[in-house]
Amino acid sequence: MRLNRYLFVSILATTSLIGVAQAQEASQGESSSSSVADQSDQIADIIVTAQFRQESAQSAAIPISVVDTSALTRAGVSSASQLTTIVPALQVSQGGAGTQAFYLRGVGNTSATSLVDPGVAFNVDGVYIGRPTSVKNTFFDLERVEVLKGPQGTLYGRNATGGAINVIPVSPKIGETGGYLTGTVGNYDTVGLSGAVNVGLSDISAARVAFTYNEHDGYLSDGTNDEKGYAIRAQLLVEPSPTVKLKLSADYAHSGGNGTGSVITGYLTTFGLTPVDDPLPRTVGLQDPRTAAILQSLYSFPAGRFGDITSPLDPSTDNHYWGVRAEINHDSPIGALTAIASYRESSLSSLDTGTGFPSLTRQDDNQFSLEARLASPDEGLIRYLLGGYYYTESIRSDYNFNVAVLSSTQNIRVGTDSLAGFGRLTVAPTDSFRIIGGARLTHEKKPFSGTNTNIRLVCTLPGINQCPDAPLFPTPSSPFVRTLVSEFGLVDVSGGTGSVYVLPTGPAGVIYTAATTTLDEEQSETRVTWRAGVEYDLTPSNLLYASVETGYHAGGFSFSDFIPTFGPETVTAYTIGTKNSFLGNKLRVNMEFFYWIFKDQQVSHFADDGLGNLSFVTENAGKSKNYGFEVNVIAKPARYTTLNGDIQYLNAKYDEFSYLLPSGPTSPPPVTGCPFAPAPGISDQVLVNCSGFDALRSPKWTINLGAEQVIPVGTTYELVFNADFHYQTRNMVGFEMLPGISEQEAYTTTNAAITFRHADANWAITAFIRNIENEHPIGQSFFNNQLSSFASSPLPPRTYGATASIRF
Fold first, then answer.
1. Are 687 and 713 within one domain?
2. What's the count of helices (H) and strands (E) in the chain, helices before strands?
3. What per-residue confidence (pLDDT) applies to 110?
4. Can you tell me the mean pLDDT for 487-513?
5. Residues 167 and 124: beta-carbon distance below 8 Å
C-alpha cells in the first residue's frame, strides 16, 4: 500500500507536468544547446549539474572536484571507498554490512547503525541515497562523479554539512545505436565484466542498458574483503517535443561474498594498559589463527578469563538493492521545469567482522523522494531557482554485535519525513558581476523506537582468571535475544525477568546478566539554511568568487542511558576561490581558501555505556573549525601530454570537545589519549577533554599528481602511459585519540597503466598496477571495549592485471 501510494503520487506529478508541457508546446520554439568542443591541443571542459544547471566545471563558482569516466577507469573505481586516492578532500572507509563512511575535510560520520545519518550527502542520478549501506554497486557506466566540498544546505538540504557526492550515469542518446564491453582480469583472481548498449528506438526515443560484474578473492588472509557483486541499470529517454524530455530508469544490484573484514591494528596490554600498535601485518584477518593468539592474551575482568575464538566464523553477505526513477524536464517560457520522483528499497543480510568483531545484520529499508525545480535561463539581470522537496524513509534494522564476552542485540525502527522548500536568486548588474542569495526551509520529523539488550558473561568468583573455562558467546543465526538464548542454551534464573541466565552445564561461578535499554522517542525540527555569494569574471577565462553558506545535520538518539541523545550539528562556511585558464586553455590554475566554523559537530563511536555494556553513541564536539586551502593545476604543454596536480592543506581541530566517562570500582580506566580528571561535582564520572586535538579523518597535507603521455604509432594506433600519485600525512582515525594506535601514518600510493589502442578508440588493451607501494591504509578504527583491542578494515592492497575493451 505504501509503494502504491508513492507510485500514484509520482504518476500524478509526472502526468500533470506532461500536461503543462503539452499545453505550452505550441508557444515554444526549438531549444538549442551549446557545448565546448574537445580540442585535442587544449584542456577539455567537463559539464556539471552540481547547481541544478548545466555549466562548465571551470565556470561553476563553487568548490568542486570532478572525476570523469577515464579517471574512474584508470583508478579501477568500483566502489566509493576507492575515491580516497582520487579526490584529495575526501576520505572514505568501509565498515560492517557494506557501510561506506564519508568524510570531507574532516567532516562526516561513522554511520555504523541506522540511528545515525551520514554527514555527506550521496546522490545517484539526482536521487539522495539515505543509507550509507546502499551506495555500493553504483559505480558503473558513469559519465562523471562530482564532489562538492563544504556544506550544501541550500540546494541539497539536511545531512550535507561536509558536502555532497553526485554520481552521474551515462544517459541514453537518441539517434545512436551501439555500446561497449570491457573485461578485466588480475591478481586475487579478479574477474570483471561491464558494458552498455544504447539503442535509438525512434527519432524521439532511446534506451540504454548497462551492467557490471565484479569478483575477486579476499584481500585479507581469512578470505574477507572480497567482492562478488553485480548490477544492472535500464533507462528509457523520450523527447516528444523539442521542449520536453522524459527519462524513466530502473536498477537492481546484489552484493555477495564473505563481505567486509578487519585486522587488529592495536591492543592494550592486560594489566599495564600499554598500547601496542600494529602487532600483525595489515593483511591478517580477524579469523586468522595469528589474530586469535592475540585475542587469547587479552583479559576481560568481568568475565574472569582471557579472550578466545572458540569456533570459526562463516562470514557471508547477501545484500539486495533496487529502485525506480522518473524524471521530466520541460523548457517553458518562465524557465526550465524539472521533476524527479524515485522509490528505492534495500534488503541486507550479512555476517561480517568489519567493525572488529562479528556483526550480524538484518535490515530492510525503503525511501521515496520527490523533487521539483524551476530554473530561469542563466542570463539577464534577474535569475532564479525555486524548488520543493519531499523525502520519506522507513528502516527496520536488527543487529547482533558479538564481542565474545558480551552479546549486544539491537532491534531498531526508524522513520523520516522531511519536507523542504528552497530558492536561489542571482542579480547580475553587469555581464561579469553577479550577486547570489539563497535559502532553504526544512521541516523534519523522525521517530525512533527499539530495544538494545546486552548479555554479559560475569565471573562471580574473586581473584584473577577464576573462570578460565567460562563459555563465550556464539554468534546467533538471527539478531534477536531469544535466538541467542535458545541457541546458547541459557536458562533464566531471575524469576522470568530475563535479567540473569546460567548454562546448566557451565562451570561454577559463571552467570550471564542481561540489561535492556528501550528507545521510543520522536525528533521534530524546523531549520533554515542560507547562502550568500558574489562572482566576478575578471576576464572570460578568469573567475573570482566568494561565498558564505550554512548547513545542519540532524540530531538523534543512542542506545545508552549514559549518553541518550545528541544534538544537531551546524556549520557556517566561508569560501574565497578563483578559477583561471591561461595560454589558450592549455593551463588551468584553480585555488580555494576555506574557513568552516562548527557548533556541536557530531562524532560517533562504540563505547561503554557506564554499566559495562556495548553501545554505539554520538558525542557533540562543542566547537570546532576547519580551515585551509586547495590548489589544482592542469597543464597541457603539448598536444599529447597532460599533467595535473592537486594539493590541499587542512587544519581541523576541536576547539571545545569534552565528554564524560563512568568511573568507579567496577569501571575500567578511561581509554583515551586526551587528558582527563574527576568530573567536578560528580563522584562516579571523569571528564575527558579533547579540546585542541585534530579532528578525525583530517590529514594536514594531501597531494595528488598525475601525468598522461600519448605516443602515436603510425596513423592508426596509440600508446598511452598514465601515472597517478597520492600522498597524505598522518591523521587520527580512532575516537580514542591514542597516539600511534588511533592514527594512520603518512602514506603514498602510486598507480600506473599502459594502454595500446586504436586511434578512433574502437578498442583498447591496458595493463595496470595500482598501489605499487602495497600500502594498507585504514580509514576508521573501532575499539572493542571488552577486550581492549582496536580493529579496522584496510583499503585494497597492490593489485595488477589487464583490461580489454571494445566499442561497437
1. no
2. 4, 48
3. 73
4. 93
5. yes
- Comparing C-alpha atoms, which of 210, 211, 200 is closest to residue 237? 200
Instruction: Name the domain count of the chain.
Output: 3
Percent of the chain predicted with pLDDT > 70 = 93
- Looking at per-residue confidence, does 511 or 307 come out higher? 511
Mention every residue, 6+ apart, whose C-beta is less than 8 A from residue 716.
Answer: 758, 759
Alpha-carbon distance 352 to 399, whole Å?
Answer: 11
CATH number of residue 91's parent domain = 2.40.170.20
- 33 in any annotated domain: no
Contacts of 193 (CB under 8 A, 6+ apart): 181, 182, 183, 184, 212, 213
Average pLDDT, the chain: 89
Query: What is the tens place of the pLDDT at every residue in 535-593?
Result: 999 999 999 999 999 999 888 888 777 777 888 889 999 999 999 999 999 999 999 99
In a domain, 38, yes or no: no
* Residues 673, 644 within the same domain: no
**Pick from 184, 181, 71, 140: nearest CA to 803:** 184
Q: How far apart are CA 215 and CA 711, in angstroms?
A: 33
101 within a domain of the structure (yes/no): yes
The alpha carbon of 740 is separated from its chain's Cα centroid by a whole number of angstroms, namely: 25
Last residue of a domain, one of 647, 672, 691: 691
User: Do residues 349 and 294 share a domain?
Assistant: yes
Q: Which of 206-215, 336-345, 688-697 has the lowest mean pLDDT?
A: 688-697
For residues 5-29, one letter each, b for 16 or more C-beta atoms within 10 angstroms of the residue's C-beta and e for the rest, the string is ebeeebeebbeebeeebeebbeebe
Q: What is the pTM of this model?
A: 0.91
Distance between CA atoms of residues 544 and 537, nearest Å: 6
Cα radius of gyration rounded to whole Å, the chain: 27
One-character DSSP codes across 704-747:
EEEEEEEEEETTTEEEEEEEEEEEE--EE-BTT--TTTTEE--E
Tens digits of residue pLDDT in 100-156: 788 899 888 776 677 788 889 999 999 999 988 888 888 999 999 999 999 999 999
Question: Is residue 543 located within the same domain as residue 492?
Answer: no
Q: How confident is the model at residue 19 (pLDDT cuts 50, 70, 90)?
A: very low
Select from 417, 635, 440 the least CA-distant residue to 529.
Answer: 440
Q: Which three cell numbers stand for residue 551?
A: 548547513
Residue span of the structural domain in which 767 resides? 56-268+275-455+517-657+692-807
Q: Are 425 and 500 in the same domain? A: no
Show Cβ contacts of residue 399 under 8 Å, excluding neighbours closer than 6 positions. 113, 359, 360, 361, 362, 408, 409, 410, 411, 412, 479
Q: How confident is the model at residue 749 (pLDDT cuts 50, 70, 90)?
A: very high
- Cβ(308)–Cβ(289) below 8 Å: no
| Cell (9 digits) for 589 | 590554475
Which residue bears the cell 541506522? 114
Annotate 161-192 with b (16+ C-beta within 10 A) or e (fewer).
bbbbbbbbbbbbebeeeebbbbebebebebeb
Residue 683 forms part of a structural domain:
yes
509 shares its domain with 544: no
Letter string b/e over residues 299-335, b meaning 16 or more CB atoms within 10 A of that residue's CB: bbebbbbbbbbeeebebebebebbbbbbbbbbbbeeb
683 sits in the region (left: phi over 0; alpha: psi -120 to 50; else beta) called alpha
Mark which of 691, 710, 743 sits at the end of a domain.
691
Q: Phi and psi at residue 283, in whole multiples of 5°? A: -115, -5
H or E stretch at 322? strand 319-332
Is residue 162 domain-shared with residue 293, that is, in the same domain?
yes
- What residues are paired with 159 via a beta bridge? none
Mean pLDDT confidence for 771-795: 91
For residues 431 and 461, membership in a common domain is answered with no
Of 263, 254, 353, residue with least CA distance to 313: 353
The answer to whether residues 528 and 437 touch, using CB atoms and an 8 Å cutoff, is no
